[in-house]
Amino acid sequence: MSQDYILESRNLIKEFKGFTAVDDVNLKIKRGTIHALIGPNGAGKTTVFNLLTKFLTPTKGQLLFNGKDITKEDSASIARLGVVRSFQISAVFPHLTVVENVRIALQRKRNDSFFFWRSEKKLDELNDRALELLDSVGLRDFASARAVDLPYGRKRSLEIATTLALDPELLLLDEPTQGMGHEDVSVVSELIKEVGKNRTILMVEHNLNVVADLSDTITVLQRGAILTEGDYQTVSADPRVREAYMGVEADQPVNDESQPENNNNVTGAAV
Questions:
Q1: CA–CA separation, 249 and 50 (whole Å)
Q2: Among 3.40.50.300, 3.90.550.10, 3.40.1230.10, 3.30.1490.20, what is the CATH number of 1-82+168-271?
Q3: How far apart are CA 258 and CA 248, in angstroms?
Q4: Where in the chain is the domain with CATH 3.40.50.300?
Q5: What is the pLDDT of residues 109-141, one digit of tens each?
Q6: Which of 157, 189, 250, 263 is the most exposed place for a label (fewest CB within 10 A)?
Q7: Distance (Å, rounded) from C-alpha 34 to C-alpha 254?
Q8: Helix, strand or coil, per DSSP, at residue 169
Q9: What's the pLDDT tens digit per position in 198-234?
Q10: pTM, 2 dp
């Protein structure tokens, strides 16, 4: 495996009672890039994501991280190696403050997440780092607010802050702008772009404007297999992509007007 690639899947297959959900997927995620995984509903994007993070076990195939075979590792072990993911639904503690959420993530990094009996003074030692992380995602002014009171886009920013607290080398984002209005999409997109300056990001994303703006490489899935791969200009010009993913005839040009409204999202449940 080339040192240029941080994560690689080889001939990845996932079957469910005879149904092949992921069919011979070979991914190479280049270090220091933002890589998007897209495709029509039912294409297998979330299943691939779950395989890469070992929330699902492959039926066949191999996974490598930094050249190390991690196929038999569990999800917790992979996270400790530096592969950390977010989820479609914001996963924060709603009734804790913003800074407390980040502080818990920092405790997890130090392997003392459940030491709730520690003194407040001891826990306050983590505050400086927690505030640095909040500053990096534009939430420092919200440090004392309860997470439940944050606007939806800010909650997603908080989730990114908690994943950054784990100091990931590879960050996987599952639908980071799902359900957002235009203003929140812009905030989170800029945040992902900033975070991507210092680490590798793999994301599943339906919003084509976000994909076009952020991604260095795009992999398109269809029926559990890779349809094509490349930069946005290459992928969007592929007639198979225009027909299968973007919902237009193969001989029609792809532009913003050909997309549905609501921030050019292709909506629906992901597999």
A1: 31
A2: 3.40.50.300
A3: 7
A4: 1-82+168-271
A5: 665 544 544 556 666 778 888 999 999 888 999
A6: 250
A7: 22
A8: coil
A9: 899 999 998 888 999 999 999 999 999 999 999 999 9
A10: 0.81
